Amino acid sequence: MIPARATASRRPLAALLLVMGLSACAQTAPEPPTIETPTVDPSVVSMYAPIQDGDETVPGVDAAKMDPKNVRQVVDYTTGYPPGTIVVDPYARFLYLVMENGKAMRYGVGVAKAGMEFVGEADISRKAQWPGWVPTQNMIKREPDRYGPLAAGLEGGIKNPLGARALYLYQGGKDTLYRIHGTNEPWTIGKSVSSGCIRLLNHDIIDLHRRVPKGSKVVVLGPDESGKGEV
Question: For residues 84 and 227, what is the distance between their CA atoms, to the nearest angstrom?
């Protein structure tokens, strides 16, 4: 039997625990901290939502995970090139479509690895939707295990590395083998990863493809010209 004095001494503690909403076995866990989800402009979410493009479905891009600078947007841009010119700044990782009144449509891009860059001017002599792709002989030599099995080419489609559209760059009527194209690897935008080509999100290359006709000029800037056009 528990002595009356001991029982009496425990009652205040039990009453205190009840008042505090606690038990002798466990305490209520604190609420986890609130993690704020970044607010994304609904128009940007819509811009990068899934697209049904013919027989292919272009997956959506999570706009909340995009670097805001890579979102397609109109910017102030000063250049001596006429409207309709595509200016690629591979060092800033942007492609600009020159517009009227000192404006340009800016797209985030993935660019070539060091030593594989194209610099200079070219013309778009061919445009393609869901293009097929054949690795170059140099690509096969550099990475035979990766590109050798694809030497015969790959049909167009969502799994094709050229993505939804391609613009083919020519100089003096000859194919330079460089392209501006889409990608099925959206995480590569803003990085130096390609074998020489300029890659855009599929949503963005679809937009660019419809804006530029065959014969449009493309200018790829060198390091000395990088970052000078955008205000």
Answer: 19
